[in-house]
Amino acid sequence: MSTRSNNPRRSVKNPRRFDKAIREWEEQYPGTWILLEVTEEDDGEPVRGKLITTAHDPEDFQKVWKSHRKRGVLTMVTYGPALEPGPAVVV
Q1: pTM for this structure?
Q2: Of 8, 15, 39, 82, which residue is 20 to 30 A from 91 by alpha carbon distance?
């Protein structure tokens, strides 16, 4: 049985299968909420992860996050760099 497909979409690599440094995911999705599966920690801090989903509002991926949590998958939510500069503090 062949597993090959003529579907052009099947030849595109799925980014969810790759883990990257948390900072790399944040840089890839500026101004976006990011839900990641944690794949590596350093002293309890997540340092690498696999992309689960992204959204402009974190409420949009609550159902997905809960389903991963129920399966015991360690996840984290982060936010890409802001698209607009925030307020500055002048002392």
Answers
A1: 0.72
A2: 82
